[in-house]
Every structure is written in structure tokens, then in C-alpha cells.
Amino acid sequence: MFDKKTYIKRRSLLRDDVNTGLILILGNNESPMNYPANPYPFRQDSNFLYFFGIDKPGFTGLIDIDENKDFLFGEDFTIDDIIWMGPQPIVRELAEKVGIKNTGNLRKLKEQIDNAISRGRKIHFLPPYRAENSLEIERLLGISNINIKNYASKELIKAVISQRSVKSKEEIAEIEKALDISYEMNMAVMNIAKPGKYERELVGEIEGIISSFGSHYSFPTILTINGETLHNHFHGNKLTKNRLLIIDSGAESPEHYASDITRTLPVGGKFTSEQKDIYEIVLESQVYAIKATKPGKKYRDIHLKVAQVIAQGMKHLGLMKGSVADAVEKGAHALFFPHGLGHMMGLDVHDMEDLGEDLVGYDDTVKRSDQFGLAYLRLAKELKPDFVFTVEPGIYFIPALIDKWSSEKRYKEYIDYSKVEKFKGFGGIRIEDDVMITDNGHRVLGRRQIPKSVKEIEDIMV
Q1: How far is it, in rounded angstroms, from Cα 26 to Cα 320?
Q2: What is the domain-level CATH number for residue 207?
Q3: How would you classify the pairing of strands 69-73 and 60-64?
Q4: Among candidates 438, 260, 442, 263, which has minimal Cα distance to 351?
Q5: At what angle do helices 106-118 and 131-141 cross, to 10 degrees?
Q6: Which of 142, 168, 252, 253 is the most buried (most CB within 10 A)?
Q7: In which element (H, E) is residue 278 found?
Q8: Which pLDDT tens digit goes with each residue over 55-88?
Q9: Domain CATH code at residue 95
């Protein structure tokens, strides 16, 4: 938990950005795996964490804009709870830690909401992503569960996105704490990714490191020798020499800020000449992208320039042909690079995407494309100081996609399918770092940079 002044300031800024009424922000409850007393690991709602700071289940925050008051609602624990859980702080004590004077139980919350509704006051709330919170909003506001997202406050959504997009120094420090863990995770994998190991053994090592820091992963780990599947969560393969291993993983800091790093490693410690050729294209494109990031630049433009770097590299290898600029404009490069260059990052690894990906990554000047590949770009708008986001280009050889485009003779003027055919089974390569925009440029986050050049990786793995 940050100092109480942080939460007071955040709520004050939100109050200034929303015109009138009440702002209702629900915390999360525990979610049972198979019966109520056996829940999944608890993760607090990020917006509740941001404005109310309390990392415990069962709480709701309320901001009264017109009366300039903040409220925290929850239930004090009974002796029956304490027998199982040990001594617990009461609601009033928790409220004081985040600068709130007004507290009550959940019955009082319902009474206050009912009173506001009877007086015709506007109640702002964010779109829920958990079914139980949809039901709670239905109970509190009387809005049918199936229509709740239609009533979510666009004014509040935009205000939250505007505020959370700009990271403070204390938030950056938290992200770098998460990156300290990522460093240990990636270095461990580089040292143990030997032929004969199973993917699950490496995942176990990563999860052990995360646990040793008292942390949790920021998203389920992607660790696979079948890297052509972008989000591959299967971990049952045995590592064999000369296969490529993608590790896309992240941890959370003590305050739940995320890291998100990807490295691609050669099982056996040495890239083959073919792997090295493709790897160097991806690395060149990633280094280019990072250097290009600065205030005022639209991330969509950087994405398209990166696509040209990748297409030029593939043309040099004979896998693409013709005009690189035309190929990228028409989307031919997306056979190899079918996803976006990156996404916002913070309390969520894909920051605030529960509020709407287009609202987070786009604006009135940049609209989402419907072109294959470019349509998956999560962040496209102008970059501003203190934005934090990922830079993660990749090249993949996806057999099903190759077969489909080849059979359709799609972009045959730009793609040499006879040569691409030989790369089926190659897998994929992705390289990802976390970047912050400064007042006049950028900074790659992380107090220790995770190796990513061919020489650095091979020197560690041999």
C-alpha cells in the first residue's frame, strides 16, 4: 500500500474529472475453485486498488463528487472468521490507511445508493468483468444483469483511463520491482533450458522464483517450443536440441504492478544459422521500435515501420519479394507478423483493457484497422510522457496460416510460398521489453537488462 496521500490525490483528481453524482467502484470477492472455502488465489480489482488501495476481498468504494466525500464499505470479521484467519483489521482501520473517514457495512452501502437513486442522482460505475460483480451492480442499482455494460459510465471510463495511463514515480518503481523478478526468471531459464528437460520443469522453476519473492505471476506463463502459437499455455513438450524456446512471462510487484518480458532461446545453447537469420531480423525490428518511441509519436506509425523492417529482412532471405512498402500497406507481412507491436502496461499486464481496448489504445485521431494483423494492434495512439507499454515484435511460421494463404494465392506477388514452405516446423521468435516515455524520449525499464543479443544468450546458455 502506498502512502495515504497517494490515494487521496487519485480520488480527488477523479472527482475533478467527472461532472456530478456518485462514483461506485467495486472491489473483488474471492472466487471458489470448487467449493466456497477453497478459492482461487485472490486478485483485487485494479481500479479499486488504484483508488482505494485495499488488497482484501469484500470491499466497495464510493466517491461522492457533489459532497466531496469518500466512503469505504465492508463487513468487519466475526470471531468465527478470526478463528480461521487470525486477527484482522476492522473496516475503519483500513479506511484510515487510505485517507477515508466515512465507513459503513454493505447494508449502509445499499441504503446510500437507494437514497441517491430516489433523489435522481447520477451513479457512475465501470463495466464489470466478473459475473459476481455484475450481479452486485444489479442488486444495488436495479439494472438488469444483461444490460449492465450498456449503462457503464463512459465519462468515468475515460477519466480513469486518462489518469491511470500516466504513471507516477512510485508506480514506475513498482514496475521495476516486478522486472527484478523477471530478470531472475529469465536468467534461470537460460541456465536450465537443456535438451531432455520438459517445458513444465522450466515453468515450475519460474513459478518457484515468483513465489520466493512473495509475488504472483502477472499472467499465465507462455513457455513453449511451439512458439508459432502466440499464446501457447501447454507445457508438456520435451525440449530437443535445435528447437527454439519462447518464454513470455511476468510477475507482479508487492503493489500488483506488472512486468511482461519475452525472450527466445535456442535449446542446446546455439542458434542454427537459419534461426540466427530470423532472430536478427526480429531483434533489429525491436531495437528500431524502441529507439523510435518518444512523445508525440503515434504507436501505429511505429508498428508499421517495424513491419517494414521485418518485411525487408524477409525479402533479404528470399521469403518475401517485390515492394516492401506496398507489401506492408496491403498486409502481406502479417503472414509472419500477425499481431500488434505492444500494449499499455501497469496494474494490469494489458493495462485497463477491462475498460475497453479501443478506449485505452485508440482515440479520436486513430481508429482501429480491420486489416488482418494490424487489427490486433492494441496500442495505436500518440505516446505521451510517463506512458508505459511493451515493445514486442515477432516472426512466426504458422502452418495453418501458411497453407490457407498459399492455397488462396494471397499476396503471391510479395510472398515466395515455395521457400516459406520449408520453414514449417521452425516455430516462432518474439522479443519483448517494457518501455516508458520520458519528456523527450524513452527509457527501457528494468534495473538489470535481460540479455537478448545472440552472443549474450549463447554465452549464458553454453
Answers
A1: 51
A2: 3.90.230.10
A3: antiparallel
A4: 260
A5: 50
A6: 252
A7: helix 273-292
A8: 999 999 999 999 999 999 999 999 998 999 999 9
A9: 3.40.350.10
Range of the domain at 98: 4-165
Model confidence at 413, pLDDT cuts 50, 70, 90, reads: very high
| pLDDT tens digit sequence for 157-188 | 999 999 999 999 999 999 999 999 999 999 99
How far is CA 421 from its chain centroid? 33
Which DSSP string do the residues of 187-247 spell out, in sequence order? HHHHHH--TT-BHHHHHHHHHHHHHHTT--BSS--EEES-TTSTT-----PBP-TT-EEEE
For the chain, the residue count is 462
Same domain, 252 and 161: no
Nearest to 352 by CA among 318, 389, 326: 389
Nearest to 121 by CA among 26, 20, 24, 25: 20
Mind listing the pLDDT tens digit for each residue in 221-233? 999 999 999 999 9
Residue partners of 320: CB distance under 8 A and separation at least 6:
311, 314, 327, 332, 333, 414, 415, 416
Domain boundary among 165, 188, 214: 165
Close Cβ partners of 306 (under 8 Å, ≥ 6 residues apart): 285, 286, 288, 289, 337, 341, 393
Average pLDDT over residues 321-336: 98
- 32 and 101 assigned to the same domain: yes
Structural domains counted in the chain: 2
CA 374: distance to chain centroid?
A: 18
For residue 462, the model assigns a pLDDT of 82
Q: Angle at CA 329, nearest 5°, toward 325 and 334?
A: 100
Q: Looking at residue 53, what is its pLDDT?
A: 98
Three-state secondary-structure class, residue 80:
helix
Cβ-Cβ contacts under 8 Å for 179 (sequence gap 6 or more): 259, 261, 434, 445, 446, 447
